[in-house]
Amino acid sequence: MTTTIAALPDHGRTTDPLWQRLFYGYRHVITPLRYAGWVTDIETSGGGEFYVRADLRDGTELIIASEHSLPADPAVVTGWTAIRQDAQDTSRHTVLYDSTPNGPQNHHGTSLIPLMARIDGLDLPGHAPRLTVSATHTAPYGVNNNSTAGIEGAASALVRFAEWSQRLTDHEGYQRVWQRPERDGYPLALFERDGHIIAVRVTRSDG
């Protein structure tokens, strides 16, 4: 089976409780980047600054932060910044995106889809396959209804999968009853409410 998600970081900090809390807390940012094929980490400094770093595998890296560094509590993020920089000479960098209150993309706020769409659009070798998010609703009386998002980059599709899933549980009263483990392929989750079943999936697009 072909691996669809990048490996976890391999260093001694993965057992540190702070690293684990931040890596889990920012998984909604990290997981889409891993499905795009990049080993993605939480970087911590002695000064209490945190940011997401993804190795783009071409000698550059992606740095995602907020107004300054990332806050310890993801709930208080006010927007996102994304910088692509040379891995050896960080003075060589390009600002890709800034949706913080004073940034040019501030109208997007904390939404992740515009950020990931900008990242998916980078000219990089070895692009991950383009993906589609779809959902199938099966009513108790057996009628099916399908909905599909457009074809998009891997990072954008994974964020859309998370947003569709969250809408079902937070706003429509569904319970997640099963989800495919990360290592077993692209995400697939089943949701149930009063006999209604919704399957939300990410699939590789042939388009």
Please, could you describe this protein's structure?
This protein is an alpha+beta fold and 207 residues long. The chain has helices spanning 17-25, 27-35, 113-120, 154-171; strands at 40-44, 50-55, 60-65, 81-86, 93-98, 131-138, 144-148, 175-179, 188-193, 196-204. The protein is built from 4 helices and 10 strands; from the N terminus they run H-H-E-E-E-E-E-H-E-E-H-E-E-E. The strands form 2 sheets. Strands 1-2-3-4-5 form a 5-stranded antiparallel sheet. Strand 8 (175-179) and strand 9 (188-193) form a beta hairpin. Helix 2 packs across helix 4 and helix 3 runs antiparallel to helix 4 (154-171). 33% of the residues are buried.
Keywords:
single chain; 207 residues; alpha+beta; five-stranded antiparallel sheet; 4 helices; 10 strands; globular
Give a topology summary.
Layout: H1 17-25, H2 27-35, E1 40-44, E2 50-55, E3 60-65, E4 81-86, E5 93-98, H3 113-120, E6 131-138, E7 144-148, H4 154-171, E8 175-179, E9 188-193, E10 196-204
Antiparallel strand pairs: 1-2, 2-3, 3-4, 4-5, 6-7, 6-10, 8-9, 9-10
